[in-house]
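Researcher: Quick test of sequence recovery. Tokens follow.
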């Protein structure tokens, strides 16, 4: 039996459902984790196709002694205990590559919207605060000639940098590796994390959530940024200390923020970040295009089928260890 944690369009998962008996969860979950009926089916499950809202940890693996593969419809795998899977010899599929452009588009959308104050200005127009032309009203920030700092120069970071370069931005980056081809292509410069914070007009986060990167952007990091700087996060909510971000936005330590990811998700409507006029929050839509989500599901199915046949996965997150 194959467990699919969330309902997906039939054509997206046809390659699995035509070969195996499947048990599929609801399209949305009231809380994180598997539904009770899916949990009860774990002892018979040989494959698990899951989303990032499901915690795959040692207790889940113990409840699924016949599990041969976990396949996640996401790039990030911070909800999965990779060491526990490795110890059980269970490969973990994920879906890098297929959502690169869609997520980079959202990063640039947030950057443009925040820099040009689109949320505020649209609300002013809609609510009758659009008077005669005023040369000092609704002044945003220029992108051309400003500096974008990319934290994490992986595929999405590179795609975002290319888009920003087309807007005339200077690119600096901080990453574990060095990307000489990107440096040459975009005239990008690798700098230390501190230098990036101090130099950048926009800091854009594209790093996975790990023990190393949890609260990477904390109070100290925010205070090192320019007071005019913008923070963009399309990585994972936990990379940012949200309490520190609230204070930084409230007291002008930075100018503004654009977030596609938060902790938790969904972020409660009463959260202070929603009260910040200089913070734009999206409901984690980085990969939310029809084509991208379908490609993610199909790749997750390919990984699942390979694992069930004891073949190497196209993308195995255990290789990240």
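Model:
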């Amino acid at each position: 039996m194959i467990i699919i944690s969330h309902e997906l369009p039939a054509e997206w998962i046809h390659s699995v459902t035509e070969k195996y008996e499947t048990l599929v969860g609801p399209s949305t979950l009231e809380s994180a984790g598997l539904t009770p009926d899916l949990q009860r089916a774990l002892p018979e499950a040989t494959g698990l196709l899951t989303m990032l809202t499901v915690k795959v940890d040692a207790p889940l693996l113990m409840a699924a002694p016949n599990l041969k593969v976990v396949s996640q419809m996401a790039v990030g795998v911070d909800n999965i205990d990779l060491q526990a899977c490795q110890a059980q010899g269970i490969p973990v599929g994920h879906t890098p590559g297929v959502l690169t452009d869609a997520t980079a588009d959202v990063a640039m959308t947030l950057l443009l919207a925040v820099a040009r104050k689109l949320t505020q200005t649209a609300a002013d127009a809609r609510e009758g605060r659009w008077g005669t032309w005023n040369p000092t009203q609704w002044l945003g920030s220029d992108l051309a000639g400003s500096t974008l700092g990319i934290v994490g120069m992986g595929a999405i970071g590179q795609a975002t940098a290319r888009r920003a370069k087309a807007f005339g931005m200077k690119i600096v980056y901080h990453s574990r590796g060095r990307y000489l081809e990107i440096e040459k292509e975009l005239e990008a410069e690798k700098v230390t994390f501190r230098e990036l914070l101090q130099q950048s007009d926009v800091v854009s986060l594209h790093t996975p959530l790990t023990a190393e990167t949890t609260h990477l952007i904390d109070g100290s990091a925010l205070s090192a940024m320019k007071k005019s700087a913008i923070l963009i996060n399309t990585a994972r909510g936990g990379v940012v200390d949200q309490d520190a971000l609230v204070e930084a936005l409230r007291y002008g330590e930075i100018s503004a923020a654009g977030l596609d990811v938060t902790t938790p998700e969904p972020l409660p409507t009463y959260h202070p970040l929603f009260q910040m006029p200089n913070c734009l929050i999206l409901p984690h839509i980085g990969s939310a295009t029809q084509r991208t989500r379908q490609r993610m599901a199909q790749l997750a199915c390919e990984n699942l089928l390979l694992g069930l046949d004891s073949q190497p996965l196209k993308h195995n997150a255990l290789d990240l260890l």
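The first strand starts at residue 2 and ends at 4.
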